[in-house]
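I hope you will forgive my troubling you with a question about protein structure. The matter concerns a single protein, recorded as an amino acid sequence and a row of backbone structure tokens. Please examine both parts with care and let me know of anything in them that strikes you as inconsistent. Here, with my thanks, is the record as I have it:
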Amino acid sequence: MDERDHPRRHPCERIGVPRGILHHMTLSILEREPMSGSELMSKMEYYTDWRPSPGSVYPLLSMLEEEGLIEQAGSDPPTLKKYSLTQTGLREVERRRKSWTNIRSRYHSIQKMYWRLFQGMEEELFEANCRLFAAVEKIHPLIKEDPKTASRIGKLLRETAEEIERIKREVERTE
């Protein structure tokens, strides 16, 4: 069966998950807590709405274990293989975190393409939207361990979203 036998897809459906992201995600998730392969797949789906296949995850786990970046951790039940980062794996996550500007750049490019090209967002609104996202992105590392400030910012963002939704309803009523 070749590609002619498959229904044509819209070109935008091919954007997908960036190449190499599975490796990054696996290490980042295991930094937080030990997990099995199936738990990793579920967590990735939670974060991205994309569930990698077992044929991608399990060979990657074997490779990461061979490289000394992860190791099997004790688990309950004992028949479930859970993995955690080794010290080498922790250092690798830190090293990669410093170089994730490529992922951030790709995200911003897709964001710009979506808002400006597909949605036709006006320049002033687009710039304000970008400033808001950038401000949240910049403050997040500073408040990770400060629940009170995180709660204040979350409340402000929810209130802002609610106000925008009120404006949308007003505009819809006048049309």
Remarks:
- Residues 121-174 form one domain.
- The first strand starts at residue 70 and ends at 73.
- The CA atoms of residues 16 and 76 lie 34 Å apart.
